[in-house]
Amino acid sequence: MKTEEHDPSSIDPSGFWRFVFWLAYALGTISLLFSWMFAQVSSGRDSDRAWDFVIPLCALILILTSILMACWLWNIKNPFRYGGDRKAMSVVLEVAWFELAVAIYATVALLTYSLLHGH
Hints:
- This protein is mainly alpha-helical.
- The protein has 3 helices and no strands.
């Protein structure tokens, strides 16, 4: 018999871990947007490029944290398969997976550019 321990309805809406999930998700999304905005600003040739790496890397870590927490809290193995009352959470996780892919791409692209151009 399956327990309802990880059912979305069994998680307290004011619970600490649910708060941490939404905080990581929101901060990851915001840092990904800041990463995109900073990429639109051209930096000088000799400027410090640390923020170019730190912001997408923070987005990557926060989004990955939110995905892993959602899989742990709600026991969602495959977010691309809709099921019952988990449909809304699956959509949120699909967006998170897309954001994770963008963050990985941005981090790898910046690292590759930096290594190839000696910045």
